[in-house]
Amino acid sequence: MFNNTEWLSQVREDVVDPGREIVDPHHHLWPRPHLSYDLEELWSDTQDGHNVVQTVFMECGSAYRKEGPEQMRPVGETEFVTAAAERAAAAPEKAQIAAIIGHADLRRDDLDAILDAHEAAAKGRFRGIRHAGAYDANPEALSIGGRAPAGLYADPDFRRGVARLGERGMTYDTWNYHHQITDFAALARAVPGTTMILDHFGTPLGVGRYEGKREEIFAKWKDDIAEVAACPNVHAKLGGMAMPDNGYGWNTREKPPSSDEFVEAQGKWYAHAIDCFGPERCMFESNFPVDRLSISYRTLWNGLKKIAADYPEPAQAALFSGTARKVYKL
C-alpha cells in the first residue's frame, strides 16, 4: 500500500534547516507483510535528511492479539511496538520510539485492567489512549472511514473513561471529522482534568459530499477551532492533511507536490491553528505512512519548516519538539 518510493522520488529537495531537532509525535507501524511499514521503513523516512530524534507511535489497529479476551487484543499492538522500540535502542543515532499511544474501549467497566496491561507491555513507554470519535453519516466516499458510533463524545460511559485517563496521568488522543469539532469541544469542557490532543486539524474533508466546499468548510472550521482552543486542556497536532480524504488529490497525480505547493495549499490552516492555540499547545506531526500516499517525509518537513520560519525561535522549538515532549512526557 505504501510502496510508492519511486513516485515520491520525483520531487527531491534540499533539506531546509537540517539541524533543527524534530520530535515526530504521530506515526504508525504495521508488521510485515501486512502493510510493510515497520521500524526499518520508518527509519528510511526519518533518516532522509531531517534531524528526527524521537517519535511517538499512534495506535492504528495493527498487530492485535488473535486470541484471548476481545478487550485485551489491542495490547498486542503495544507489544509489537515495544519490540520495535527496543530494537531501535540499539541504534541511538537514529530516531527512537519514545512513547506509545494505544487503544482501549474507554466505555468499559474493566478499563483499568486494560490500561494496566498496556503499561506492562510498553515497559515505561505507555502514555495514553486513542479511542477516536470519527463518524460521518455518509462514509462511502471515504478511504479511511471512522469507526465510532454517532454521539460517542457525549456518551456518559465514554466521558467517564476519558476522565479516568486524566486521573491516571494519561493523555487522550482523538481524530474526528471537521463537522465534529464542536462535539469534541463539549467533551473537553466536560472533562477538564484530562490532557486531550486533537489530531489532524479535526480532519477537514474534501471528498464525496464535501468536494468543492473547501472555502466554506474553512470558514466554519476557523470558528470551531477557536472554540476548542478555548479549552486549556486541549493540544493540537498540526499535520495529517495529505490524506486522500482531505481531497487535495495529490496521491492521484503524475508527480507529488513540492514543499512550496504544500505551503500554498495548507499554510493558512496551520497559521490559524497556531494563532488560536499558541505554539506551546501545537505540535507538527507527520501522520506517516498514511500521508506518505501524497508527499514524502523530506518534502513534508521542508514545508513545515517554511510555515514556521516567520515565528520566533522559542515558538519554532515548541512546534517541532517542545510541545510533544511536554505533552507526552518524553
Automatic annotation (TrEMBL):
Residues 23-330 form the Amidohydrolase-related domain. Coiled coil: none annotated. One of its GO terms (molecular function) is hydrolase activity. SUPFAM superfamilies: Metallo-dependent hydrolases (SSF51556). Signal peptide: none annotated. It holds the Pfam family Amidohydro_2. It comes from the Bacteria. InterPro entries: Amidohydro-rel, Metal_Hydrolase, Metallo-dep_Lactonases. Keywords: Hydrolase. Belongs to the metallo-dependent hydrolases superfamily. This is Amidohydrolase family protein.
